[in-house]
UniProtKB/TrEMBL annotation:
Source organism of this protein record: Clonostachys solani
Sorted UniProt keywords: NADP, Oxidoreductase
Keyword check for NADP: yes
Keyword NADP: yes
Similarity comment text for this entry: Belongs to the short-chain dehydrogenases/reductases (SDR) family.
Protein name stated in the entry: NAD(P)-binding protein
Alphabetized InterPro entries for the sequence: NAD(P)-bd_dom_sf, SDR_fam
Length: 311
């Protein structure tokens, strides 16, 4: 492979947060960071599954001293995400990298009970936007011009399934769409979010008070994880993909995220970019490159979160 996380330098003294770090790609992302000496927090909806993941990583570490912890957060309850950010900041004064990894894919229509948003939109996009917002000060105070803090949004080439217009502000639940347009819109949101973060806080960002934050949107590839078992698609389709060798392992799926969040090969010019396996810059959809749409989505999200007193 053109990139392997074994090339990561020592991360001793660095702090990272990986959402959905108890399973799949997130688990391996957290594990590689911890093996390089970083203090790692894994965001997990289930404290027990989070602790089980921590113990598994430690047992697989072959004598390496592992500094890894669970941060409870439920993306389907936005106040839980705010609480998790507050808990993190009560324990840490620095954050070198945030990997917004947790997600669901092509699930049957559902709305969050408390917040009332469609599940994929809230889990994949809104919760991560909100978490990032509440950690911006910590990221900015950690990052420098030499060693910027980084935010990595795990997206998908499924962003190409977004509805006409990219983000349908008149039908955010995608009642006129389906499982894939809902998924696509949420994943497009991840890319537009990374783009806007770079515009505001990146190398040439307009917000000079919170400079020193690089961002990226990462498509991990077709990975055989629990995400696929949750998808509302026939099981035989997944079996065929496995049979034909389309799927990669969750460990391989973590490589591009690790490149973007901690790799020295990720450079200033890469901030705000879209990356595909393995660690290759690529061109996303036209909607994903639309600066006007990026601004409109940010403004809508900020307004919505303020109206709910979540920021």
């Amino acid at each position: 492979m053109p990139y392997n996380p074994s090339s990561l330098p020592s991360l001793k003294g660095a702090v990272f947060l990986v959402t959905g770090g108890n399973t799949g790609i997130g688990y391996h992302t957290a594990k590689h960071l911890a093996l390089k000496g970083a203090r790692v927090y894994i965001g997990s909806r289930s404290p027990k599954k989070g602790e089980d993941a921590v113990q598994k990583i430690k047992s697989e570490a072959a004598g390496v001293d592992i500094d890894i912890h669970v941060l409870h957060m439920d993306h389907m309850v936005l106040s839980s995400v705010v609480g998790a950010a507050a808990e993190f900041k009560s324990k840490e004064t620095r954050l070198n990298g945030l990997v917004n990894n947790a997600g669901i894919m092509a699930t049957a229509f559902q709305k969050s009970e408390i917040d009332g948003f469609e599940a994929q939109w809230q889990t994949n996009y809104l919760a991560h936007w909100l978490l990032t917002w509440h950690l911006l000060d910590t990221l900015a105070s950690t990052g420098t011009s030499v060693t910027p803090a980084r935010v990595v949004n795990v997206t998908s080439n499924g962003h190409n399934f977004a509805p006409k217009g990219g983000i349908d502000f008149h039908d955010l639940d995608q009642t006129k769409g389906g499982i894939w347009s809902r998924y696509g819109m949420s994943k497009l949101g991840n890319i537009l979010h990374a783009k806007k973060l770079n515009q505001l806080f990146g190398p040439d960002g307009s917000n000079k008070e919170k400079a020193g934050i690089w961002s990226a949107a990462v498509h991990p590839g077709a990975i055989d994880t629990e995400l696929n078992t949750q998808a509302d698609v026939p099981g035989f389709v997944q079996s065929m993909l496995r049979c034909f060798g389309v799927y990669k392992t969750p460990d391989e799926g973590s490589f591009t995220s690790l490149f973007a969040v901690a790799g020295p090969e990720f450079e200033q010019r890469d901030s705000g970019g879209y990356f595909v396996p393995v660690a290759k810059r690529a061109t996303p959809s036209a909607y994903a490159k639309d600066e006007k749409l990026s601004n409109e989505l940010w403004d809508w999200t900020e307004s919505e979160m303020r109206s709910r007193k979540l920021i």
